[in-house]
Design brief:
single chain, alpha+beta, 6-stranded mixed β-sheet
């Protein structure tokens, strides 16, 4: 992000803006530009009141550059973002800038808050969805932009309160067997003599962890539960068990996205430079970048037909989730490949069992 300003200059910002200097966005005659281009809404309004006219698109481009330039003063970046958003209307480029600023880990808090205000101001449906989240104790996290915007854009989805989400999840969980875990899964094969946790010792109970789950966690869990109830997904998991088991060089994984009103799994191949590992999926650069616009990551623990001792995320998975601010799903083969167990985890290290799902009828 530190190279943004110099990169834009190298790519021809100066030449582009100079070429546009004589091109107005309307029929108003263009006057010579003022000594300094406006960097805030107040400055722009003052120049307009003074009768000064200059190309609106030029001001938008310059202030987009300022807002995205990490070398500039934070307050000026906030003001430039507000001016660009005010003048740009529904320009998708400005909308993408806002999402970029929300998602980048090194965005200053004051600028992230400004980007959130602009996103909500430009998207009434997102603002309405966010208000429901906030009313249920939710504090904004950049990793949830995909969830918020997806739910807001789905007219078939009803806003749910925390008690409603909890009740729905409870109903789904109570109808399933579970594979409780007492600690993170081993990084490779299970240690000799290890046995599954007794249910009372599990660290992955939904009720036990409910106080540490946000409104976004609850929505993620519900959407994944809905996904796992679909025959096409269970059929795909059964095929993945077969194909991943045959691939002993890499572990399989990918991202879960909200598409057409439901969660969908999209596989990403592990990069060759990550080396060979049949135990942990290595997310490539494309998957890491795309993960900022997804609900969660997923990985398969399919090394053995009865892989119950590898159920749930490893310590490395939990550390990676914290580093990349990501949610995760682990799907593990059990019962001689006739079933799989699923565990959800979040960047705070909370693990929740989502139950056992039968694959027998899809053989």
């Amino acid at each position: 992000m530190k190279r943004t300003g110099s990169f834009l200059v190298r790519c021809g910002w100066v030449a582009l803006l100079a070429a546009m200097a004589g091109c107005a966005s309307d029929d108003t005659p263009v006057q010579p530009p003022p000594p300094a281009w406006p960097v805030s809404v107040a400055e722009h309004d003052a120049l307009v009141q003074a009768g000064t006219r200059f190309p609106r698109q030029t001001i938008v481009l310059l202030n987009r550059q300022r807002a995205m330039d990490a070398d500039r003063d934070e307050d000026q970046r906030v003001e430039s973002l507000a001016l660009a958003a005010s003048l740009a209307g529904d320009d998708p480029a400005v909308a993408q800038d806002i999402r970029t600023l929300l998602g980048l880990p090194d965005t200053p808090p004051i600028l992230r808050a400004a980007a959130l205000r602009q996103m909500l101001a430009k998207n009434p449906t997102v603002a309405k969805t966010f208000a429901v989240f906030a009313a249920n104790g939710y504090a904004f996290h950049a990793r949830d932009v995909h969830l918020l915007t997806s739910l807001a854009g789905d007219e078939a989805r009803q806003p749910l309160t925390r008690p409603q989400l909890v009740a729905d999840i409870h109903t789904r969980l109570s109808g399933r067997a579970h594979v409780p875990i007492a600690s993170p899964a081993p990084e490779t094969s299970a240690p000799a003599g290890a046995t599954p946790a007794a249910e009372a010792e599990g660290i992955d109970g939904f009720d036990k962890n409910l106080g540490r789950l946000t409104h976004a966690d609850l929505w993620n869990i519900l959407l994944v539960q809905e996904m796992l109830a679909r025959p096409d997904v269970l059929r795909g998991l059964n095929n993945a068990v077969r194909d991943d088991r045959a691939d002993t060089a890499t572990a399989w994984g990918g991202l879960i996205r909200y598409v057409n009103g439901r969660a969908e799994m999209v596989r990403y191949k592990a990069p060759a430079e990550a080396g060979q590992s049949d135990f942990r999926h290595a997310f490539n650069a494309a998957a890491v970048e795309a993960g900022t616009d997804a609900l969660a990551r997923f990985q398969f623990h399919f090394e053995h037909p009865d892989n119950v001792l590898r159920a749930g995320p490893t310590a490395s998975d939990l550390a990676d989730a914290a580093t990349h601010n990501a949610y995760g799903i682990i799907v593990t083969s059990i019962r001689n490949d006739t079933a799989c167990c699923v565990h959800y985890y979040n960047p705070q290290g909370v693990i929740v069992s989502l139950g056992v799902y039968s694959l027998a009828e899809w053989k």
